[in-house]
Task: inverse folding
């Protein structure tokens, strides 16, 4: 099984197409939409996690490329700088996926990068600059 | 105490240590930077540290840096919400961390202090005095902030989502210094404390001290009440316990570690110091309308235990909670203080004078505004 987090950039002429449906129904992939921004007449983009066996994921990516969808690896990664964190828990409320969590016994904060969808809502909530965005090139 | 009973516990417990690590805006530090040659009178001039303005209305080379000061060219909230990336609290943190800090000064020059400009690196070790002096710390209880409006608001209680989607609180609860001695029976002027990782002292009651608020049967204030003014030698502090904090859309503040030992003088002091999170209640306040307009409206009361569970119920609605005060680090303050006392390196003190308590009549008043008007001379 392969799991890939990618950014899909849709040219304006494709945004009314049911592409996610086709990825699921025709390509047999499990598609988890993490973030999406679709506006009429503009490039849309969507961050998805695709699950399936390796060949199917590769085929799905080819299918998207053939349609004209630009596929990029998820270039942004939110990082938790543990040494800057004071464990106040202010970041817990905005985090939509509980990637930022607290151990209630010790009241210490932790970060599970696997659950993070890079929505960046935590960035302006942390007073200590403990949440950083890292761009992979 | 719950197992042994008050009497036996009071006989065996000598001291209860408390702690808090939270944003405390009315903090600052004063410095004597030493005399440059030729001498310069910064007093009455303009001084900055890492471009953050310091107050220089003293003698020649004494300056004061407030935690919330920000550089003149910081965009503030002009592009809303502002980031407030660096300010006075960060300068204090950097100095305590041993970093070089840029000092600039301009002055008008006098016969005895002819120099007019200065631009130099300074560091903590080279300063004559570097003293943390905070006019209000360790608030006894605090509001739980929510937002009833339709838009996101940016406050000193953090980012509050519309229609009460989150509730932010700021208390160390059962570890909080003034909640362990709610009537200030054991602490007062001169009490030795843990401050910023070093040793400090209580100067007196802090600004906005308000001991006469309503209290529970056990004497716990149910709204913000007492405060402390404290001081300590910055050179003996540690940057782990003094952190600059940037509140989006609000400003800069200092997050500070503070702990107070409560000597168990009698059964009553122990009963007070055995306070639990389930007994402490905090008022839920709307920061979109009631707080900015100074209306004493409370949406409900919740216990610290409920706040720390991650969810409270306000007017029938479930609201997720988040803290601004670090409970984990508050516990660490109390444990460090305990280890110092056990090692004999930290001695307990008897206060020199008491703080105004619940029966003192001392209270926190709003500003009686009397608008200034120019007297028009009859022509």
Result:
């Amino acid at each position: 099984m392969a799991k890939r987090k990618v950014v899909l950039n849709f040219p304006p002429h494709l945004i009314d197409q049911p592409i996610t449906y086709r990825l699921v129904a025709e390509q047999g992939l499990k598609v988890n939409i993490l973030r999406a921004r679709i506006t009429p007449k503009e490039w849309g983009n969507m961050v998805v996690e695709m699950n399936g066996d390796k060949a199917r994921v590769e085929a799905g990516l080819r299918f998207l490329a053939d349609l004209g969808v630009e596929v990029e690896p998820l270039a942004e990664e939110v990082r938790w700088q543990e040494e800057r964190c004071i464990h106040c828990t202010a970041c817990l409320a905005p985090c939509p996926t509980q990637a930022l969590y607290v151990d209630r016994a010790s009241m210490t904060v932790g970060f599970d990068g696997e659950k993070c969808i890079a929505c960046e809502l935590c960035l302006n909530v942390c007073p200590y600059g403990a949440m950083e965005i890292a761009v992979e090139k | 105490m719950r197992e042994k009973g008050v009497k036996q516990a009071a006989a065996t417990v000598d001291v209860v240590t408390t702690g808090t690590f939270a944003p405390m805006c009315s903090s600052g530090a004063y410095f004597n930077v030493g005399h440059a040659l030729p001498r310069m009178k910064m007093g009455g001039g303009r001084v900055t540290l890492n471009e953050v303005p310091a107050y220089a209305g003293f003698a020649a080379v004494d300056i004061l840096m407030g935690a919330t000061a920000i550089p003149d060219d910081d965009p503030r909230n002009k592009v809303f919400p502002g980031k407030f990336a660096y300010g006075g609290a960060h300068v204090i943190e950097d100095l305590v961390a041993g970093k070089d800090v840029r000092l600039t000064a301009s002055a008008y020059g006098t016969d005895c202090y002819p120099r007019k400009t200065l631009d130099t690196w300074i560091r903590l070790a080279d300063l004559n005095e570097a003293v943390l002096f905070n006019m209000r710390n360790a608030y006894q209880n605090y509001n739980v902030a929510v937002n009833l409006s339709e838009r996101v608001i940016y406050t000193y209680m953090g980012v509050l989502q519309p229609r009460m989607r989150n509730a932010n609180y700021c208390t160390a609860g059962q570890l909080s210094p003034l909640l362990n001695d709610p009537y200030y029976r054991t602490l007062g002027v001169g009490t030795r404390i843990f401050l910023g990782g070093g040793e400090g002292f209580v100067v007196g009651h802090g600004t906005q001290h308000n001991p006469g608020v309503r209290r529970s049967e056990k004497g716990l204030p149910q709204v913000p009440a007492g405060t402390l003014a404290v001081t300590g030698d910055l050179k003996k502090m540690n940057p782990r316990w003094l952190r600059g904090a940037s509140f989006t859309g609000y400003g800069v503040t200092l997050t500070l570690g503070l702990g107070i030992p409560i000597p168990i003088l009698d059964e009553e002091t122990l009963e007070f110091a055995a306070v639990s999170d389930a007994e402490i209640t905090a008022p839920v306040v709307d920061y979109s309308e009631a707080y900015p307009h100074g209306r004493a409206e409370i949406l409900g009361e919740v216990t610290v235990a409920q706040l720390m569970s991650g969810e409270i119920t306000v007017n029938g609605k479930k609201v997720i909670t988040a803290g601004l005060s670090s409970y984990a680090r508050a516990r660490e303050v109390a444990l460090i203080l305990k280890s110092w006392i056990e090692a004999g390196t930290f001695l307990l003190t008897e206060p020199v004078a008491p703080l105004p308590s619940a029966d003192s009549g001392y209270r926190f008043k709003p500003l009686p505004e009397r608008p200034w008007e120019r007297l028009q001379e009859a022509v």
